[in-house]
Amino acid sequence: MTQPIVLHGHTSGPNPWKVAIILEELKIPYELKIVDFADIKKEPYTNINVNGRVPAIEDPNTGITLWESGAIIEYLVETYDKENTLTYTTSPEKYLVKQWLHFQMSGQGPYFGQAAWFTKFHHERLESPTKRYQDEIVRVVSVLDKALTGKKYLVGNKCTYADLAFVTWDSMLPFIFGDKFATLNFEKNYPAYFAWNKNLTERPAVQKITKDKQAAMAKGH
Amino acid sequence: MTQPIVLHGHTSGPNPWKVAIILEELKIPYELKIVDFADIKKEPYTNINVNGRVPAIEDPNTGITLWESGAIIEYLVETYDKENTLTYTTSPEKYLVKQWLHFQMSGQGPYFGQAAWFTKFHHERLESPTKRYQDEIVRVVSVLDKALTGKKYLVGNKCTYADLAFVTWDSMLPFIFGDKFATLNFEKNYPAYFAWNKNLTERPAVQKITKDKQAAMAKGH
C-alpha cells in the first residue's frame, strides 16, 4: 500500500498547489505540510531543499527527497502513473509534453512571478518593470492561445501533466492584474487559451485544490 | 548513420549554446542555423517554435521538432546517450539530475536573464530592479556552492547534463556585472561553486563551444 507522500508547501504561492493537483489526479495519498515563510530559508527546511523554496516532497515509498515542481511532477508521473493517464510513451508526444512543462517552468512561472512581485510586493512602485512583466504575461497567453487553436489540449487529444502545470499560475492573474484584468478580455482576445483554462479548472482535482488553497489561506497561514 | 540535427540559435544568448555543449559532449552531428533577432518572432521561424525563442531543434533521424532547451537536453540524452554518460538510470539519481536541470531552467536562467536585461538593455536605468536580480544571482550561486561543498558534481561523482546546463549562463556573469564582478570574489566566497564552474569550462566540449560562440559573435551576427 502506498504510504502518504509529504508535500512541503505554503498557502499562497502557486507551485506547491501545482504538485498537489498532480497528486490528486493520480490519486496518490499525500500530506501537505505548511512551511512558514519565516522558516523557509533556514534549517531544518534547507536540509530538505537547499534552495529554500517550496514545493519539496519526501516519498517514504522510495526514500527520495526532491524539489523543483517540474522535477517532482516528472518523478510522480514516471513512478505512479503506471497507465500513463497524464503522459505519453510515444515520441514525439512524450517530449512535447516535456517541452510545455519546461515552458511553464522557465516562461510562465518566472514572468508571472515577476509581475506579481512588481505589482504587489516591491518596495517602490515602478511603472516600466511592471509593464514589462504584465506585457510578458499577455505574450505567454498569446503563445498558448496560438498553440491551442483548434485543439483541446497542448499535446494530442488528452490532458497531460503539461496542461495541468499551467493552471495554478493562471489562476493568479486576477490577483496580479487587479482591475486591469477585465480589460484584457481573454475570453474574446485569446479564446482557445480561455476555453482550455476553463476546461482545466473544471476538473475535480483542480476544483478540490482550489478549495483546499482557499481553506488554507482562510486559516491565515 | 546519424544525420546532422539542425540547431536553431543566435550568437549572444546562452541557451542555444547550452544545447550545443550537450551535442558536442555526446558527439552528435549537428548544424547550427543562426536566426536573426529580427526574424525570431515571426513566420517562418514561429512555425518551428510558436514561442519565438531559440533554441529549437529539428532532428531528421526521428522527425521531431522541439524547443525549450531543458526539453531538448532531456530528448538528446534519452535518444542518443545510450551508455548514460551524462545521466543515471538509477533512482533517486536520475530525478536529482532533473531537479537541478529544472533549477537551472526556472531559477538560474530567468534571474540571470533579468539581471542582464536591467543592466544592459532596459530603456531606463533602475537601481532597485537591477539590485534585485544581481542579488538573486549571488543567491543562486550561494545555493550551488552549498550543494557542491565537498563534491565535484551536483549528483553523484560524475558530470551530468545538469552540471553542463549551468555553464553558459555562468559565463555571462562578467558581462552582466561589469566592473562589479571582481568585487564579488566568487573564488574566495563561493569556492565550491568556483572550482566546479572552472572544471566544467575546461572540458573540451565547453572549450569548443566557447570558441564557436566567440567566432560567431565576431562575424557580427
Can you give a write-up of this model?
Chains A, B: InterPro entries: Glutathione-S-Trfase_C-like, Glutathione-S-Trfase_C_sf, Glutathione_S-Trfase, Glutathione_S-Trfase_N, GST_C, Thioredoxin-like_sf. Chains A, B: This is Glutathione S-transferase. 2 copies of one chain form a homodimer. The first copy, chain A, is an alpha+beta fold. Chain A has 2 domains: 5-84 and 208-218, 3-Layer(aba) Sandwich (Glutaredoxin), CATH 3.40.30; 93-204, Glutathione S-transferase Yfyf (Class Pi), Chain A, domain 2 (Up-down Bundle). Helices cover 58% and strands 8% of the residues of chain A. Chain A is built from 12 helices and 4 strands; from the N terminus they run βαβαββαααααααααα. Chain A has helices at residues 14-25, 45-48, 69-80, 93-121, 127-148, 161-165, 167-170, 173-177, 180-184, 186-189, 191-201, 204-218, and strands at residues 5-9, 30-34, 56-59, 64-67. In chain A, strands 2-1-3-4 form a 4-stranded mixed β-sheet, covered by helices on one side. In chain A, β3 (56-59) and β4 (64-67) form a beta hairpin. In chain A, α1 crosses α12 and α4 (93-121) packs antiparallel against α5 (127-148). The two termini of chain A are 31 Å apart. The mean pLDDT of chain A is 97. Chains A and B meet through β4, α3, α4 and α5 of A and β4, α3, α4 and α5 of B.
Task: Throw out a few tags for this protein.
homodimer; 221 residues; alpha+beta; Glutaredoxin; Glutathione S-transferase Yfyf (Class Pi), Chain A, domain 2; 4-stranded mixed sheet; 12 helices; 58% helix; 8% strand; Glutathione-S-Trfase_C-like (chains A, B); Glutathione S-transferase (chains A, B); Glutathione-S-Trfase_C_sf (chains A, B); Thioredoxin-like_sf (chains A, B)
